[in-house]
Amino acid sequence: FSCVFQAILIFCWVYVRKYQSRRESEVISTITAIFALAVALISSALLPVDIFLVSYMKNQNGTFKDWADANVSRQIEDTVLYGYYTLYSIILFCVFLWIPFVYFYYEEKEEDDGNTCSQVKTALRYTLGFITICAVLLLIGAFVPLDIPNKKNSTEWEKVKLLFEEFGSSHGLTALSFSISSLTVIGMLAAITYTAYGMSALPLNLIKGTTSAAYERLENTEDIEEVEQHLLRIKSKCRDGRPLSSRDRRALQQLEERLRTLRRRERHLESIEKSWWTKFCEAIRPLKIVWGVFFIIVALLFTVSLFLSNLDKALHSAGFDSGFIILGTNLTNPLNMLLPVLQTVFPLDYILITTIVMYFIFTSMAGIRNMGIWFFWIRLYKIRRGKTRPQALLFLCMILLLIVLHTSYMIYSLAPQYVMYGSQKYLVQLFLFVLCKSILFVFLLDQCIVTRTYLFLHKFWFFSAAYYFGNWAFIAVFLIGLIVSCCKGKKSVIEGEVDDDDSDMSDDELSAYY
User: Fold this and answer.
1) What is the CA radius of gyration of the chain?
2) Which of 3, 165, 278, 366 is least enclosed by beta carbons within 10 angstroms?
3) Domain-embedded: residue 67
4) Is the alpha carbon torsion for 396, 402, 405, 406 positive or negative?
5) Cα-flanking dihedrals φ and ψ of residue 58, to 5°?
């Protein structure tokens, strides 16, 4: 675990340093971003560990191992559960206290270069609002009723209540569960916005590649010549001393700004054309195409699996009042079929589930990087290599924290049986044994151990209902993003690196990347 932890920290450090602005970098914001990103990645690693532990306690013939008696298994379950609570408490601390405070501190620092004490007080005043929201969520979670009026046919709901009772016997903290579930819903919205788009944009960008730096530089030179000719024509109007009209002055100003942008593009393109990194990327172009095809196949596999899982819930669940929880698999999806097959060769199934988790994280990063950070229709920040402001990095890490919270439910939607029981088997008559399946849930309470992930996800039925509808929205956004990405042409080799609002000082950082 220490090696994994060190690898995560190294990755977070490299990732943050790659995108943060060298001119605006701050020590506290850098440490906060690295820590928040590391917490997100470590939290995502809990799911494979949880599945492995419940599976490891049983033999292949369905019997519990000698050391896995009732007390030991309960201790293992509690240890995993406390691990979730510890990391989730850290996430609450980051989302509601640490990240908002650091963000508002640097916002005040940009507006007022006065004394530090005043900036800290102002940041604390704004952060108090986030702390209040956290306190309200904890209070609601502590007193929210879980009992729902039963329908006439309450068979499914009675089984669901067993889930809640079993979770309560594991010392579940409902207040923390409610707060985390509330953040998970926000993470669901972020996943719909960024992850769904990233799953289509990332592979297609790898397949298409970028335009040639030499070709773009030639086009840029032609644009510079054209703008310079326009400038000369406008300036020629005032050679005899006549003043320019207001229309000509506005056009002159716009053309001068356009010329500055084109010249910055020229410097960037020249640096890229000469860089060793560009030559290396051209050499591995076939490998990028292979990875792009692989990623698009994986994305389509996920989408089909998610669609079949949601369709199964729509047709066979107990309905909205139970959170669309389904205790049997009626429509098998490809991923739910693949994982039990891989269970026969240790540890292929754990490698796959870990790969899926990391795939969601990296596609989320790609989606945020391509789209930038938006608040409804307002673009707040851009994520650009070597030019990302400290506030944007904090936003990026907060969004990733929220998306990671939702990742566990996404994995459950893709492979419900596997996430619930792992590779456990249970004994039946005449020493036969089969894979644990939720359709026999009442019988399996004593035969198989349910993962803490599953029980945590289904603490509140109304959040499960929100996740169900969120999955449909995720599928729709992915398909729309896939169509848009297919219709778009190749990206510029300096996509997002040069904008009209950049200063000429930003070109001083070219040598660090090209």
Assistant:
1) 27
2) 3
3) yes
4) negative
5) -125, 150
How many other CB atoms sit within 10 Å of the CB of residue 319? 15
With pLDDT > 90 as the criterion, what percentage of the chain qualifies?
4
On whether residue 301 sits in a domain, the answer given is yes
Lowest-pLDDT choice from 14-18, 213-217, 499-503: 499-503
Q: Is 497 inside a domain boundary?
A: no
Average pLDDT, the chain: 77
Return d(Cα 261, Cα 263) in angstroms, integer: 5
Residues 137 and 49: beta-carbon distance below 8 Å: no
Render pLDDT for 139-154 as a digit per residue (tens, 0 to 9): 776 666 554 444 444 4
Whether 475 shows a pLDDT value over 90: the answer reads: yes
Residue 425 in 3-state DSSP? strand
Burial of 329 by CB count in 10 Å (0-12 exposed, 13-18 middle, 19+ buried)?
buried
Enter the tokens of residue 494: 């300096």
Range of the domain at 295: 1-145+169-215+272-487
Token pair 């090209």 in the structure block, residue: 514
Decide if 244 is inside a domain: no
Structure tokens belonging to residue 358 = 């990391």
Q: What pLDDT does residue 512 have?
A: 47
Question: By 3-state DSSP, what share of the chain in percent is helix, strand and coil, each rounded to 5?
Answer: 75, 5, 20
- Read off the pLDDT of residues 253-292 as tens digits, 9 standing for 90 and up: 888 888 888 888 888 888 887 778 778 878 888 898 999 8
Among 462, 376, 400, 463, which Cα is nearest to 185's? 463
Helices (H), 343-381: 348-371
Counting the structural domains of the chain, the total is: 1
Do residues 199 and 476 lie in contact, with contact meaning Cβ atoms separated by under 8 Å? no
Cα three-residue angle 239-241-245, rounded to 5 degrees: 90
pLDDT tens for each residue of 366-383: 888 888 887 777 888 888
Can you point out the beta strands (E) in 110-200?
none
